[in-house]
Design brief:
By secondary structure, the chain is an alpha/beta fold. Helices cover 41% and strands 15% of the residues. It is globular and about 60 Å long.
Amino acid sequence: MILIHPPIAKPSEPPAGIAKLIGALNRHTITCRVVDANFEGIMSLLKAPQELQDTWTKRAIHHLTGNLASLSNKQTYTNLDRYKRAVADVNRVLDMSARALGIRLSLANYQDHKLSPVRSIDLIRASEKPEDNPFYTYFKKRLSELMNVNKPSFVGFSLNYLSQAVCTFAMIGYLKKICPDVKIILGGGLVTSWMRRPDWNDLFSGLVDEWIAGPGEGQLLSILGKTPSVTHVTPDYEELSMNTYLSPGFVLPYSGSSGCYWNNCSFCPEKAEGNPYRPTPSGQVISDLHTLVQRKKPSLIHMLDNAMSPALLSTLVDRPPGVPWYGFARISRQLTDPDFCNALKRSGCVMMKLGLESGNQEVLDDLQKGINLEEASVTLRNLKKAGIATYVYLLFGTPAETLDTARETLRFTVLHREEIGFLNCAIFNLPAYGPDVEKLHTEDFYEGDLSLYRHFLHPRGWDRNLVRQFLDREFKRHPAVASIIRRDPPFFSSNHAPFFALSSMD
């Protein structure tokens, strides 16, 4: 079997989902090859000859080798301006490699003006004409070699993001042309969202043979004719770690759970899709991390949980993994204890991602976030004093928000400007389905039968255009907010932010 991680996703660390599948297949003695076609494909385009060469592009090509090396050097992360120049130049080379095809590429996204990832007919078209894909030269050679040498019966793709969809179907189409009998298995986060739609039906007959929703280890083994013999396997990064990802040292991504332990927020896709919370026992998580740290010697651990549980955080304090780590946690009473935050720091925590969403208590209560703003203030202060950076997520345009309450979020942000390390400001997207959606007047958001979102008539008149104007003209222009936003690493955002936090501690 061959497992493939398709373009485009941030090339800063290996794909964790595929590593878990490899661990399960190896445990059941199934021969498997893994290909990070995202990393390999991006590198192939960066090194390909460029037809369009303006002054910037020529300079970026000239400095490409040095810039790629600098993104793998921790010293680069001590100078934000130098880092931004390196990333911008690398991204310029990648972007210009596909401009002649009318496609915009970046280190984090794929935009095709002809093909939409939310229209099934466009994904079928991508499969019918794979030669139109900018990665075609790469995957034609790579897939042909793999099929000739390994002769697999199954090829699996892990499709997690919209930015991967067009390339995934182009690669599937090519495989079906050269090896029509190979069985294609499709899973991943985006596939799970498609399959959990109430109106889901298989629109890709003849292209995809098997679909997997949710955690895929057991389902994949069943497809391959095996009965899972254990409930837990340690991820395997052996083959993936040979790639020189664009980070200083090997970043180990690890998920201690699927789903969310809170699972109560309004408009939450996890809740709408019915994804259950499935935690790995905290002791097993620590055992896995110790094993993987010993094997791979990572420079950083990226905890991928939707929200790290209080039990897991406590276990990390009691049994530190031995290298720096960061992850997403809910603002809770646990983090209002300064001694616990200091203990988190000693365990190796360098950054905590926090979903604050709003600086207005009524908005938070309406969204059922379970967040108390007083506790949020204490948490931010405690983490700052402990030396742990914070990456705070704000969400604007929710049904309960107004201009006045959005301005309260601005005031909260300004008040805590010294405690907030990084900011992510997003505009609310209404999920396409779920009990909360039924209360609103909705219409099409994207023109596409695979769209995951709906446009809605805001009950308080706070529509997307007004939200965008507020963000651009008022929120982001406030000097205190602007200085935080300027710190955000372009394209890589929270994936590279911990390295800046680490550099400030050296």
